[in-house]
Design brief:
With 754 residues, the chain is α+β, with helices and mostly antiparallel strands. Helices cover 46% and strands 22% of the residues. The strands form 5 sheets. The chain has an 8-stranded mixed barrel, surrounded by 5 helices. A 6-stranded antiparallel sheet has the order 3-2-1-6-5-4, with helices on both faces. Helix 18 runs parallel beside helix 19. The chain is globular and about 90 Å long.
Length: 754
Amino acid sequence: MMDTKTRIRIQNKYYTNANRYKLNVKWILPLFIIMLLLSFYGVNYVKNLTYENVYNNITELSEQTTAQLNLAISEQKRFIEIIIDSINSGFFDTPEDIFRRYNPDLNAYHFTRLVILDQNGNGTTSDGHTVKNYANIENYFAKANTTVYLAENEPSVIYGSEKLVNVYAKTFTLNNKNLILFATIHTEDYKEILLRQLFHGKGSTYLVNNNGLVLIDSSNNITTPNANFFEVINNSLSNHFDISKLDEMKNHMKAKQVGTFDLKLNKNTYFIHYEKVNTNDWYVITIAPDDTIAKELIQFLAIALVSCISITIIIIGICIFIDLSIQKKNRNLYTVAYIDPITKIGNEAYFKENAIKFLQNNSKSKYIIALDINKFKALNNIYGFEFCNKILEALAVKLNTILPEDNITCRISNDVFATIFSYTKDIETLLNKIFHDASNLKIANTSLHVNLSIGVYKLKQEDTDINKALDKAYMARSRIKGLYNDNYYIFGDDLENQLVEEQQIESCMEQALKDNEFVVVYQPKTAANTEKVVGAEALVRWHRNGQIIPPGKFIPLFEKNKFIVKLDLYIFEQACKDIASWKEKYGFVPIVSINVSKEHFVYENFIDEYVEITDKYGIDRSKIDLEITESATVNDKIDIIKVLNSIKEKGFVVSIDDFGTGYSSLSMLQNMPIDIIKIDKVFVDKANLESDKNIINYIVYLAKKIEVKTIVEGVETKEQAEYVKNLNCDVIQGYYYSKPISKEEFEEYFNKNR
């Protein structure tokens, strides 16, 4: 790992434009008078303010610990549910089959073993032990019948073992026998979640139930077995006021409430927060002494006391305090404006402001690089945000170390970095060094390899717009995004031509919309069970100068420049016109699905425009299916649940398009207010039509379980159509039935096949 001095040197480089601290004493007399008047009031005010801040800090830490514990328990329960689902699906014939399949996964979830017992408490364990007459087995069967039941501090299933375990239990039926699955975990294994260095090691975290029984003590302060937290604390209390606070805490925990308070323990003040865990009425209790949390308060009170004794010290102290505070505030403002809080290097504003100056210097062979970490969101899901923040910090240090001294390297957003520098040697040698050295990081004694996507643009003398130069680096990066065989991509003629083409498209897109060059076509949707047409998807084609511009040429560009918002509304209105005309001419209204780009979701009331259009043409909104791409459901900047609820509240049907191509999952979709999943054609293309063990089979099966309809798109052959119909999906869409066709052709097609 990089030494601390190197990190500080790199971070200080970004403060060269900030003012240094310098004492100014011209306000001595006015401040002397003000301080005398406000000192007595100020001390009390700061005390209250500091305590409030302390409460917020300890609450936040406790909430974070509880969230991690909830996540661990949730993942363990989900693991049990996966096992039970696979058993209920008929994948296993004997308990041994189950053990063989899931034994390799136990360590990942911190389980010690699996156990399968009958209603008499007899059975076997996954590590070869025999269990006979396990106590209270009927209680487990009763509580684990409908959901995964978690029992705390139960005796081990292994005879003679003194360790207490937590038991995850769920009933199931195998070979017409009612059985129960146990997955055991030592209660102390949750300790690693609670082991956080709180307040310089003086803080403690406890896991207790709502009766006060201590399940885990992170700091081993309580050594008595089966100790009660309330009794331990009560023994150290000396006044009735603190005892009443402890009693209030008991009542709150019984009522499943949370809280924060302070009390005196052995003449020292401690801050306590108790946070409810989602399972079994457990609570996480965080305790910290005031001498670590409230240092600022103690220091201020000491200064106030000294100020009452010595006017001279007051004058000097006030002058220093105010003057340095103003300078510190200015420095803090600079930090907020220009410094990335995670990596401590420059942010996007710093980069653009300083890169413009760099463009104007006389350096030769200047380059701008944009890079990011492939699948960084997956790393966040695996390691957590805190660890991944350290990855970003380590990468920032590595880049500053590898690149030439004059580099300006900044974190632009998320995992995206940009750097500008001059380099007269072989650039590809440097790029290879960046790719290999910066990809290998060491985080908290853990070696980690990340895969980088690097886009490079060599600056020209005529380049004066940093935004355009950075866009070219981004374009180069996008060419190799996600590819593991290519290390970097240098912006060349191919991308220059693409850029020119995009500029040409952008120059005429507004006029094209006014001239109705964007045309709506419809691809029919066919019911899988009857092969009758049940609706269509509205798609866009651009007719310009006698040619059709493919959607792949303009849709990604429109999404990037936000013109897609106008185009979406235009297509939506054209489709509504067509639906209204069909209703008037034929008396039928097919369900039409229309794409909605995620770019709309930044506008809180975007759906109102869609409602206004449907009202204008008298369209039943239950006949319109708004398709949301799967990528929008995993975008951190979008509150997707709120968006979907707003759409559903207005009466529209909601579907998730291109399902399976992103990072979402059915477990996540289960919580979303959606009606339909559109399964991407890649699962059809890759399916073995002679087998029933393709991924698409399980997607359809699980979708049925969460009561969501399925549309399979991209069906192009008879064999694929027959296979998909046998999956028991709801609707099929693809070229086998019809390519996208004009409004008039769809009318004829629908009348023949409805």
